[in-house]
Amino acid sequence: MFDNNTKIGIEKIIDFIVAFISVLLIAFVEDNPSNLPLVGTALIVVSIYVMIRGRKNKMLFFLLFIISMINISIGVYDCLLEGVDVSAWQLSGLRATKYNTITAKGVLLFVTMFNLFIKDDVLKNEKKSNFDELRINNTLISYMGVLVMYVVLVYALISQLLTRNLGNYQSVSSPIFEYCVIVLCVSWYYSKNNLVVDWLILLYVFFYSIIFLAIGDRSSVFMYLLMLYLLYFQKKFTMWAVLGFSLIGIFCANIIGIMRSAGAFNFSEIISMATSRGLYVDTFSWSYYAGIAITALAHTVDSKIPFCLAYILSFIGIKNDFSSFTVFALNYNGLYNNGGGFCSPYLYMCGGYLGIVVGAVFIAFVINIFFSNNRPFNSIYQAVIVAMSLRWYLYNPVTLFRGILFLMPLLLIACRLFDNTMRSNDTQSRG
Predict the structure, then answer these.
(1) Percentages helix, strand, coil for the chain, rounded to the nearest 5?
(2) Per the UniProt record, which residue ranges are transmembrane (predicted)?
(3) Which of 137, 144, 265, 373 is most buried, most CB within 10 Å of its CB?
């Protein structure tokens, strides 16, 4: 009915209309908790639209699906239903303030701007990458990576499991555990036809899952399981598989959460409670509440500049009291939270709504680079960005800026140089 250029033009017009309506809503709807259902409805609609737009690029669709499912859960349970199943102190606390509405608006603004700046050729990239065919073999690199993973696993056992109160929700306390996802992916890439490394990776994820489920960190476990799915089952990748994987993940997350807090409930009651929750995940809701605390902090401090500078410096490992917004909010402003915060409140803390726009445009730029083609290193980045979205989007974008965009290139460059040197020496010795 329409040629390709006409379709692209129509889609662009729709994008601008969606963005225009969202900006109008953010600008003119009062920051009153009574307006949360309106903001939540807009967030749900825009998130579904964004997810549908990316359906042709399979890896991008997976990323947009995760972001959209998180947004939809927040839109329904934290906005439309105004915090169903949350603690009473939350309902009478920050959720009852204007900062709740501002935070929801920030999430809406981020996903709107993010969608607006993703290129059409990236959205239309239908070529599937066969991850297994991209792998190469370097036994030394792959085994060194596996060794690092298991050393970190032992450290996790000692520092996390043996020193924790296992009855409470707790997130990973050190980025080294989540960054091991990158090491896992690189080790896998350099282990073509090496079944030993494949099995060592599977065992690592199994033991990691036991340790971190025991301390209540479900998101990091699902991050690793998602990475395994992307690396080993990518050939079976379909939209229905993504939907099934996500629904099963949400259901299992709720079962684990209920079992951890239910105590005496029997299994049938736990299943019934998990089913009744639907798409609600308490991890999403807790992280969103931390985002409200960050938004409140942004409105109560005299100057946001020290926080913004400290946050940027944390990308290269330089930290001070201002680096962690959630910790500062809790310790110095009495804004209780349990960590996390979503991507957009961190950007809001650094620059208000303009900071969210700049951050969303930059992240869209990153996506355009790595999801435009399926070259080997781009494919590795795609897998890591998708798997770690459960950290950088749901918890803190520092995972993207420091882990994926700063540390990961250094690791890949070092491995490439080491691999090239080994191959060059091998060629010379044969010659």
Answers:
(1) 75, 0, 25
(2) 12-29, 35-52, 59-77, 97-118, 139-158, 196-216, 237-259, 279-298, 310-334, 346-371, 400-418
(3) 144
Instruction: Give Cα 303 distance to the centre of its chain.
Output: 28
Residues 219, 397: Cα–Cα separation, whole Å: 15
Domain boundaries, the chain: 4-128+278-415, 131-277
SS3 state of residue 142? helix
Spell out the residues 6+ positions from residue 169 whose beta carbon is closer than 8 angstroms to its own.
216, 257, 260, 282, 286, 338
Tell whether the torsion through CA atoms of 421, 422, 428 and 429 is positive or negative.
Answer: positive
CA distance 187 to 137: 10
Name the token pair of 351: 């620059």
Q: What is the DSSP letter of 129?
A: P
Residue identified by tokens 């017009």 is 13
DSSP 34: G
Amino acid at 102: I
Cα–Cα distance, 259 to 273 (Å, whole number) = 10
Q: Say if residues 218 and 284 touch (Cβ distance below 8 Å).
A: no
Per-residue pLDDT tens over the stretch 251-279? 777 777 676 665 546 777 777 777 767 77
Cβ contact 267:423 at 8 Å? no
pLDDT digits 0-9 by tens, 314-350: 988 888 888 899 999 988 888 888 888 899 999 999 9
CB crowding 119-148: b at 16 or more within 10 Å, else e: eeebbebeeebebeebbeebeebbbbbbeb
CB atoms closer than 10 angstroms to residue 315 = 17
State the pTM of this model.
0.90
172 with 222: CB under 8 angstroms?
Answer: no
